[in-house]
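Propose amino acids for all 206 sites.
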């Protein structure tokens, strides 16, 4: 991805994901909203699909996840388990989109399939890594019961959300007017301004 404009879009979408983690995450967890991570994941998959439709390159979704984690690290309390979960969603979406999605399949059922598989895989990868590799104490103490709950219950809810969010993101991203705006100087300038606003806002809400 040598095109510097692609990196502007990656940082923009990563920041859109990141600000939802900072603002929404704090509000959800403070108010004990049930399955808070599921609602955040739904937005994450929408943003990932929108970003992938505009920057259709292997590695772009992982980079968006990395930027989202960086945004949260810079603007919120450093809950490293949350950062790992964010990164894994971007990574798994990247892997399955790169393997299964071709240009001709983006308007079929494949976006929904990729979304559901990515959700299950991201949740499973996070639960196994945080418990058995990182060995984070709350997860180690919860054991397989906590791991299986996150993988199969949380993963199922996230997959259902992704079934809707990913096709919607692709549909919106593949609209001609968005693609036309992406190529225009005004769209690029607007992306830079929005990116600056998101990071400025992050300093105030963090």
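Proposal:
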């Amino acid at each position: 991805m040598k095109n510097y404009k692609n990196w502007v879009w990656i940082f923009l979408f990563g920041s859109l994901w990141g600000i939802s983690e900072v603002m929404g995450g704090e509000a959800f967890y403070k108010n004990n909203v049930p399955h808070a991570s599921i609602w955040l994941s739904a937005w994450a998959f929408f943003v990932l699909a929108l970003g992938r439709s505009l920057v259709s390159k292997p590695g772009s979704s992982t980079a968006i996840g990395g930027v989202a984690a960086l945004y949260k690290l810079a603007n919120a309390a450093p809950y490293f388990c949350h950062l790992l979960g964010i990164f894994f969603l971007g990574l798994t979406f990247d892997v399955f989109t790169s393997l299964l999605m071709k240009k001709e399949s983006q308007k079929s059922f494949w976006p929904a399939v990729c979304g559901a598989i990515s959700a299950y895989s991201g949740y499973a990868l996070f639960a196994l890594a945080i418990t058995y590799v990182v060995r984070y104490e709350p997860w180690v103490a919860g054991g397989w019961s906590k791991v299986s709950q996150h993988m199969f219950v949380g993963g199922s809810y996230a997959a259902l959300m992704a079934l809707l969010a990913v096709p919607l993101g692709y549909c919106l991203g593949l609209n001609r007017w968005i693609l036309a705006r992406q190529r225009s100087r005004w769209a690029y300038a607007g992306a830079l301004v929005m990116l600056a606003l998101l990071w400025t806002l992050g300093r105030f809400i963090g």
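The chain has one domain: 4-205. The radius of gyration is 17 Å.
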